[in-house]
Amino acid sequence: MTIKTHTTDYLIVGSGAVGMAFADTILTETDANIVIVDRHHKPGGHWNVAYPFVTLHQPSAFYGVSSRELSTGCKDEVGLNKGLNELATGAEVSAYFDNIMREQFLPTGRVKYFPMCDYKGDSNFESILTGQKHHVDVNNKTVDCTYLKTTVPSTHTPNFDVADSVNFMPLNELPSIQTPPAGYVIVGGGKTGIDAVLFLLQNGVNPDHISWIMPRDAWLLDRENTQPTEEFFTSSIGAQANEMEAIANSTSINDMFLRLEASGVFLRIDENVWPKMFHGATVSKMELTELQRVKNVVRMGRVVSISADKIKLQQGEISTTPYHIHVDCSASAISNLAMKPIFTKGLITPQTVRSYQPVFSAAFIAHVEAVYPDDAVKNKICNVVPLPNSDLDWLRLTAAFLMNQHIWSKDEGLRKWLLNNRLDGFSKLVRSVKPDDMEKLMILKRMRDNGKPAMVKLQGYLAAIQQGQTA
């Protein structure tokens, strides 16, 4: 079988949300050609294997590609997100990306799409179905959108032992349960653990029948503070002002977290347990109230093994039975937390340049690639905002985000792009403030006045952490 050869300007490896957002901006802002390679049968990356009841954790308006709205502009009228902007379901997100490929990308004639293919490196890929080998001559750069690969429960192998007799499943299988078990054991305290618990509670499961193994409690974000519409200005922009003020006025790292909680920036499930984890999980206040109904929360570290009658943890063990369903929510959302330069010779490695927003980051990186000629300059504009794991990582990502915001604010072209890009939900909100709206102007003033002092305080705390002083 001969090797098929293709020539293109950009070879994008991965047609998940990041790859699609990058490609969309390149297609919109340049005349470049693109080859897209992906293992899945359709675009969307991990959305192809996500659990059936998954939704976005932040408003739909912040997600997708720049050129096409995902949001319908509606607020949820029922459920635990009631009164807030809609959260697209996994099925809606999957269909959205499929439509973009079929209706926008391919009709341009500038995109060649190769689904069901394995990328082998060095511009080579191979069809999973036929074995056909391909090589791509790349004029500009390869774009590795698999670097921050998302892991999902359905394809995750637990890093603990599970006996054959244990009733063990990923949360993907929860909707397929046919008979009531003796109880449910949720393994994992992150976003998927939250979603599993909420799914059970919303379907009538008694909270006393749920055991929640939570190796670390997490600081959570209030979803009301992420709303991009004007009616939520006081919540969203106000939360940013509260954040800067809390950091600037804090006397220690712990004091800072307490101030962030008191001002409504952070939430936690149990006020008596100090969170040690931060993954950027977002909940509504109604969801938080539901989660607090589960009283049997097991805080003995990570699971070591599960047998027919007991669960061994790092700091003890609890009993179980073969009649309990054990739900695996232990997969890490991102499998690779190491940072590397985004722009290198012949290669772009998209990573987050703004906190919690990988798709915005991909679109922004594509714009910088299209406009700026030098990789050194591009990397200076696109400092990587590290993905968080521990509570202290929040300091690192916030400092990096503030640095990027400062750099972008000095560039008139970037300011204009941000204002006109739909994935940047807050620029328009800030610019829309009228000169006689004193309440909103005061919020903006608080944010400005505390910005530099907050950055200085964060840098001091980070220096102390480096020296082993974390109090």
Q: What fraction of the residues are assigned to beta strands by DSSP? A: 15-25%
Shape descriptor: globular
Q: Find the structural class using helix and strand composition.
A: alpha/beta
Q: Mean pLDDT score, rounded? A: 94
> How far apart are the first and last residues' alpha carbons, in Å?
63 Å
Task: Profile the largest sheet.
Answer: 8 strands, mixed
Question: Count of DSSP helices?
Answer: 12
Q: How many beta strands in the DSSP annotation?
A: 20
Low-pLDDT stretches are: none
Rg: 23 Å
Helical coverage, percent range: 25-40%
Task: Tell me what the structure shows.
With 471 residues, the protein is of the alpha/beta class. It contains twelve helices and 20 strands. The strands form four sheets. Strands 1, 2, 3, 4, 5, 6, 19 and 20 form an eight-stranded mixed sheet that branches. Helix 1 runs parallel beside helix 7 and helix 9 (393-409) crosses helix 12 (438-466). The longest helix is centred in the last third of the chain and has 29 residues, at 438-466. The relative contact order is 0.14. The mean pLDDT is 94.
